[in-house]
């Protein structure tokens, strides 16, 4: 029995148990290594992906529960010469040091900007509080999200 999911706009038929964490399917079956395994308990945010427009911790989300939702990983946000405004802003603000949290940070920021295209600094800090950065780049991350929001608004 297979599970069918759409990831980054492409449909996949998987031979995975429904209770398998989405993160494991993304990394092991689809070779999408952007989402990271951090804590395995939905606490750090390194595994964050978007299900439709909602930031979701893929380390605890069963692949069988994806249903018809569209899964977006960092690989689907932008790449190479076609970076998303958030990725450009993270680079410009030097918002990554080690980079381990960046995938989850960027996806969570994308979900935030989908809900609120003009968040103030306090809103960004509150909404991103669940995404952990051990390097201490928090101020740069906030600036990057503000920069991207401004660019996306035109």
TrEMBL record:
At the top level, the lineage of the source is: Bacteria
Q: For this UniProt record, give its keywords in alphabetical order, as a comma-separated list.
A: 2Fe-2S, Iron, Iron-sulfur, Metal-binding, Oxidoreductase
Domain named 2Fe-2S ferredoxin-type: which ranges? 1-77
Q: Which molecular function terms from Gene Ontology are attached?
A: 2 iron, 2 sulfur cluster binding; metal ion binding; oxidoreductase activity
Q: Keyword Transferase, does the record have it?
A: no
> InterPro entries recorded for this chain?
2Fe-2S-bd, 2Fe-2S-bd_dom_sf, 2Fe-2S_ferredoxin-like_sf, 2Fe-2S_ferredoxin-type, 2Fe2S_fd_BS, Beta-grasp_dom_sf, Diverse_Oxidoreductases
Q: Which Pfam families match?
A: Fer2, Fer2_2
Protein's name according to its UniProt entry = (2Fe-2S)-binding protein
